[in-house]
């Protein structure tokens, strides 16, 4: 386990040293610690498989938890603020959702409750060290896979900061135009904010608006696209042709991406090229779920482990037929 140490000599140097040591601690806490948290890479990979399996056993479209957990991975990570080096993928979204007064997170209660149910059971069983931050990120990737997307290799080792309330002021909203969305992703720390904006919003292809409209940028509750249980690039068609899909609930922000001067070209590429979109989504999702977490151990943000990837795909998992530790978990797969 990696221990975050502050050198004593720094602490004795008054207020400046205190600030420095705090910064050191924060940086240390934000470092990816696969072997630090999980002991060995081998065990970390076992934990990865445990989360992916738990996703197949517990997430579903029928109760909304599958798309809700894809969304939660975004809301945990994209609270990173580059200019202040705060927030990011640290599990604090659970805290923020529970507080109930963060309008940006409205509608995330479904996954909140799922995560609080799933993680303690995995901890009691296969992986006592599992962090909520890792679980949230990998559940998001598994949710995409369960909706038919290609497997997304992921890294583990995000430390939790479960008492934090990350800064969600300025969190991207449904009224943001394409330039404002790009600005948001830049401050959130994405290396190519335009690509992030155009690529990542396609998760709305499997989304449902669950919370009543509060402004003119949401058309009401309901599925955002006509095939909202399949995660492919159909999002781009729906967003680019609103009159053809008058009953769908895609957001104003989605429609503005289709027409934005900096975004429309890439939007059209992804609309017409499924493979280009899938490769981009994979890479951007990996990067997003590492926001605020400094890679270490020779791993870069786009590297990942695929242990458990695709292993449970297409299976209506029966808890009695599962190997070892997961017997007894309820079979909620629809
Ligand atoms: C411009 C950026 C974005 C905006 C303005 C935005 C906004 C929203 C809003 C308002 C909802 C409906 C919430 C409700 O009423 O229940 C929603 C749902 C959703 N969002 Fe986003 N979002 C954005 C980007 C993303 C990203 C980057 C992801 C994931 C990678 C994502 C995944 C989802 C999913 C899957 C849902 C459906 C959740 C469910 O069915 O419960 N969104 N989003």
Automatic annotation (TrEMBL):
Tell me which Pfam families the record gives: peroxidase
Q: Which residues form the signal peptide?
A: 1-28
Spell out the SUPFAM superfamilies in the cross-references: Heme-dependent peroxidases
One annotated GO molecular function: peroxidase activity
Where does the record place the Plant heme peroxidase family profile domain?
70-313
Q: Please provide the record's keywords in A-Z order.
A: Oxidoreductase, Signal
Which Gene Ontology BP annotations are present?
Answer: cellular response to oxidative stress; hydrogen peroxide catabolic process; response to reactive oxygen species
What PROSITE patterns would the database entry show? PEROXIDASE_4
Q: Does the record bear RNA-binding in its keywords? A: no
Query: Coiled-coil regions in this chain?
Result: none
Please report which protein family the annotation says this sequence is part of.
Answer: Belongs to the peroxidase family.
> What PANTHER family does the entry give?
L-ASCORBATE PEROXIDASE 6-RELATED, THYLAKOID LUMENAL 29 KDA PROTEIN, CHLOROPLASTIC-RELATED
Q: What is this protein called?
A: Plant heme peroxidase family profile domain-containing protein
């Amino acid at each position: 386990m990696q221990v975050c140490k502050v050198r004593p000599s720094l602490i004795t140097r008054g207020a400046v040293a205190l600030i420095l040591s705090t910064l050191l601690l924060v940086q240390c806490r934000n470092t990816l610690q696969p072997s630090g948290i999980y002991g060995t890479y081998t065990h970390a990979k076992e934990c990865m498989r445990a989360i992916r399996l738990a996703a197949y056993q517990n997430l579903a479209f029928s109760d909304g938890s599958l798309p809700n957990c894809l969304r939660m991975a975004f809301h945990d990570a994209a609270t990173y603020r580059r200019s202040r080096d705060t927030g990011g993928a640290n599990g604090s979204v659970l805290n923020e959702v529970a507080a109930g007064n963060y309008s940006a997170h409205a509608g995330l209660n479904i996954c909140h409750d799922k995560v609080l149910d799933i993680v303690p059971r995995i901890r009691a069983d296969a992986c006592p060290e599992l962090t909520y931050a890792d679980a949230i990120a990998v559940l998001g990737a598994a949710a995409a896979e369960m909706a038919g997307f290609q497997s997304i290799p992921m890294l583990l080792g995000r430390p939790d900061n479960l008492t934090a309330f990350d800064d969600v002021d300025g969190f991207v909203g449904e009224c943001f135009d394409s330039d404002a969305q790009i600005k948001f992703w830049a401050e959130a720390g994405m290396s190519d904010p335009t690509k992030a904006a155009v690529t990542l919003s396609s998760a709305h292809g499997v989304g449902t608006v669950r919370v009543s409209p509060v402004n003119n940028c949401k058309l009401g509750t309901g599925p955002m696209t006509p095939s909202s249980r399949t995660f492919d690039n159909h999002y781009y068609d729906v967003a680019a042709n609103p009159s053809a899909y008058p009953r769908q609930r895609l957001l104003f922000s989605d429609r503005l991406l289709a027409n934005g001067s900096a975004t429309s070209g890439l939007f059209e590429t992804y609309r017409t090229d499924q493979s280009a979109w899938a490769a981009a989504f994979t890479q951007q999702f990996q990067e997003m779920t590492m926001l605020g977490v400094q890679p270490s151990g020779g791993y870069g943000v786009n590297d990942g482990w695929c242990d458990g990837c695709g292993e449970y795909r297409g299976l209506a998992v029966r808890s009695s037929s599962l190997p070892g530790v997961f017997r007894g978990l309820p079979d909620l797969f629809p």
